[in-house]
Amino acid sequence: MSSMAIFARVKKGIFFSKEILNKVLDVEKKSFPKSWLYPQRKVYYQIALKRPENISAFLYAGENIVGYSLMVPYELVWMELSKDDKKMKLDFDRYYLDTIQILPSYRGFGGSSKMIMALCREANSRGISKFSGHFRTKNNLSQQVKKLFLSKVTNIRKIKSWKYGGDESYEYIEWKYSSRKKI
Hints:
Blueprint: E1 6-11, H1 18-31, H2 41-50, E2 55-61, E3 64-73, H3 74-81, E4 94-102, H4 111-125, E5 130-136, H5 141-149, E6 153-162, E7 168-176
Parallel strand pairs: 4-5
Antiparallel strand pairs: 1-2, 2-3, 3-4, 5-7, 6-7
Helix pairs in contact: 1-2
């Protein structure tokens, strides 16, 4: 990787173009094993990028998209995921970190933290301060999230085998975050 700065940017509103869709699909394909790719992935990301309630953050190196993350209203994933994680409780005031993907050559430079913080700040601007997600333990993403939010983490559960992540060990993490200064 070059010494160029890496930064995250949230795209506000409905943000969809074939060019962006193709870049997201390319990043996903190069970031995950084939068995982890969403079924009907093109349709999935078309819908995700068009939904105004979703929040997409892109990681850039210069003008190149090298990462993508998606946060969605919790209730949109709760029905499906709670079948496999029975301890998930419906919460209309929470957003869920659905995916975070970074090209392998750009990992380890703080990109995931930058995207997560960008997503949380945008959610705060929409009145949301509660978040959650299922995070891999093998790649230390769960540790990064816990470190990023420290005392703001409100719930952690270990999951031995998460079917949506190659049956690897995951942690379900909930946290509160507000970027607004208290006076």
